[in-house]
Design the sequence.
């Protein structure tokens, strides 16, 4: 589960779908007691909102986690119509713009993830075909270690740490769009780097590990 802010709204991403809490909407509209107001609106309109909301555990400002009701785009739009505040119309437009932007990003991210998976498969095939000697091929630990290294270089976390921190089962599902693009670019260049070279698996891993740090440093400099 990831938190993203667009147009001042905090969106919660769960499995590629974005949600907004009633508490967030009421805060943005300037209610004096946003938590109580969010509860009132839910209680009054639960029959309409039930199929467009779920309860999830979110961290509060005191770092503790509390069960919070969140709404999908349809539910959030209905919810805000029940907030009789002068800012409601303006906030509705900003919230909808955020949903649209994030939805487009999910589509783009999926395209990059699928392409990245294809690039990764090509890289692992190359690594698996490297030979220690005439009879022994590289083991799976070579590309598994490289995958861990690449994830650490791109995100600052190991695959296991990333999955836990972002609440996903697949490492690539937990990447931001920028991280997904960086990782795909790195793996593509690593695959190109291996071509036409006679390296043992250990030599290849050492070479590509060093190369990964240099490559990401260049990408980060370009971003700046």
Sequence:
């Amino acid at each position: 589960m990831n938190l993203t802010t667009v147009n001042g709204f905090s969106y919660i991403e769960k499995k590629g779908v974005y949600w907004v809490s009633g508490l967030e909407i009421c805060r943005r509209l300037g209610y004096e007691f946003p938590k109580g107001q969010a509860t009132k609106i839910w209680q009054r309109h639960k029959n309409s909102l039930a199929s467009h909301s779920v309860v999830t555990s979110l961290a509060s400002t005191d770092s503790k986690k509390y069960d919070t009701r969140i709404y999908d785009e349809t539910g959030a739009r209905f919810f805000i119509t029940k907030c009789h505040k002068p800012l409601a119309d303006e906030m509705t437009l900003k919230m909808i713009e955020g949903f649209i932007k994030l939805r487009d990003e999910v589509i783009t991210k999926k395209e990059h993830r699928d392409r990245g998976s294809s690039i990764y498969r090509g890289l692992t095939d190359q690594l698996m075909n490297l030979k220690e000697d005439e009879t022994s091929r590289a083991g799976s630990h070579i590309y598994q270690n490289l995958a861990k290294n690449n994830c650490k270089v791109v995100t600052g976390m190991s695959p296991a740490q990333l999955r836990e921190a972002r609440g996903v089962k697949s490492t690539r599902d937990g990447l931001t769009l920028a991280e997904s693009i960086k990782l795909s670019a790195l793996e593509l260049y690593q695959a190109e780097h291996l071509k036409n070279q006679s390296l043992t698996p250990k030599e290849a891993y050492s070479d590509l590990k060093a190369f990964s740090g240099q490559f990401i440093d260049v990408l980060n400099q370009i971003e700046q």
In short: The helical segments are 22-28, 34-49, 73-81, 88-128, 140-155, 159-166, 177-194, 201-223.
